[in-house]
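During the reporting period the student researcher (J.K.) took over the structure-prediction task from the postdoctoral fellow and processed the backlog of single-chain submissions. One of the processed entries is reproduced below for the supervisory committee.
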Amino acid sequence: EILLCCPLSGLSGRMRFLEDDVFFGLDRINLAVRAAQTFKQFDDLKAGTVRIWDFPAAKPGLLPQAPTRVLRMFLPAEEGGIDTNHRLDAFKVQLLPAWAVELAFAEQKLSRADPGKDAFERLENIAFNLWINYAVVPAQQLVRGRLDDCSKRLVRMQKVLYEDGGKNLSDSAVAKWREQVRGAFLSRDEAKIVEVFAEDEWLAMVVSAPDEELTNPKSVRKSMLSAIVLRAVGEALAARCNYLLALRWQEMAERAQVQASQLAAGSAPDQEKAKAKESARAAWQSAATCWDVYADSNKLLQQHQNANRKDLPLGLKEYYEGLVRQAAAARLLHARALRQAGRADAAVAMLKKLVADLGAIEQNGAPGAAHGLFWHRYAASLQLAAWEKARM
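J.K. obtained the following structure tokens:
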């Protein structure tokens, strides 16, 4: 059988309008998918039965399950779908490590009970916007190859967390701010409530204008609010920024390596080949350095121990399990960066340690983080075997 799966955006009328009218006479860009025409083209091949890729309906009266239909039912109208239940918004909320952030707020004695549900939700919303702007968006830019745009936000947030991550915030100062917020909400005076959350101009600009550098940060008002929010989201956000920056350098090194290999195989001057080779080696070294920074903030075995603490709620366990899997995948990339940078012995040692650590996690028999790590150990074993064979 030939199973057709059409991209939802390509089926829309606006894509046909762009392709046929806006870009008419210009460079041809294939944006639209004409399902009936595509179906006929495959049917004319006589290579087998042609049908839309779907699965039978789960119950009588329901529509068949198909990837394109699922996406259409998930997205709101403004994104090309038909959902009216805010599923996309709920999904975006899940992108925030909510349990970790809520625990960090709780450690500052801030919760829905005190200073209150409305106040706490405002704090969570600020943390959520910081995560979206400085973790989710840079990841999307990285996937799209916008490496410079990606690094701007990440470096900016790293600098913010290093200089003012709320680390020196005293419990008495937080308690005083909590009383101020509680009083504002008890008074039901909207002006007082707005004043508490709007007086921190610096935080408002960091959240609302992530791509704009402040020309004179000292001239912008800051309050306790920024220190409280940064302390709550800072640890998770710093680890994520380190991870994405290392991924960015890994991508740059891979590109530089391809260019150097192409030049080496061609007829370019020797000086140009040597320069490209050195550029690639330097990029790999930068990637390895970034992975070192990330590894310091996300230690595999420590995260595994955190994920299997009996006193943790399920949400936090899942968060730590994700960090364990991420750390294992990062070590594979780290080892490649080391080897490409000319540090083969260090790369081999790292893979051997990864295999040993993952083996220990699996033998431990603890649930959660051990699940799904087999493939990381298997990939590391295969890579080790390939490198050992290349040495012979």
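The committee noted the following: The longest helix spans residues 224-265.
J.K. will present the remaining backlog at the next meeting.
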